[in-house]
Amino acid sequence: MKSPLAASIALSALIIVGATGCAGITPQATTIDYSASDGANVPKSGPIEVRNAFFVADESGTTGNLVAGLVNTTSDSATIHITVGDGPAQSVRVAGQKSVSLGGDDAQPLTFEGLDTKAGETVDVYFQSGDAEGIKYAIPVLDGTLPYYSTLVPTAPPSPTPTTTPVAPAVEPTPTASETPVG
Predict the structure, then answer these.
(1) What is the pLDDT of residue 22?
(2) Taking a C-beta distance cutoff of 8 angstroms, is the pair 66, 103 a contact?
(3) 2: helix, coil or strand?
């Protein structure tokens, strides 16, 4: 009699351990760090951290507005240099213990030319601040399809409107009555 009871208890224990054992060895998704937004958090390299960085590109994919948060975690002012491809670096100075927003609705746009990409792709961007070597990181590219990004799409600078100075109309000489003898 004891043998079926012992077998049943042993089988129940195996089922419980088998059913719950996976949770003990499987990594939990809630413990994995990730950017919970559209942008990317660049791994720290230097005194300035780059958070939630992404590009909003124009329709052709050649010009992009970099949207990001820059956070200086030190007490001293620091400069971050941002380079896309072979283009020139753009620099932003951030005061100590302060943050700067780039490219958002209330921030000055930081545009880059020559992206040669389209929405849904990534662009390799090199970030360097302080004495650190810097880091190259893949930054996502979005477009203005979503209404809250439509105002962030870079626009071409307005073409200069030709200005014309009003010219006075040419004065045509009025013919005068010729003096002919009447008579």
Answers:
(1) 62
(2) yes
(3) helix
Maximal CA-CA distance, the chain? 160
Prediction pTM value:
0.70
Give dist(CA 34, CA 31) in Å, integer.
Answer: 9
The chain-wide mean pLDDT, for the chain, equals: 83
- Check pLDDT > 80 for residue 52: yes
Query: For strand 48-57 and strand 135-142, is the pairing parallel, antiparallel, or unpaired?
Result: parallel
Collect all residues with Cβ–Cβ distance below 8 Å to 54 and sequence separation of at least 6: 38, 39, 40, 66, 67, 68, 139, 140, 141, 142
**CA–CA separation, 143 and 156 (whole Å):** 15
Helix (H, G, I), strand (E, B) or coil at 39: coil
Of 162, 149, 122, 153, give the one whose Cα is nearest residue 42.
Answer: 122
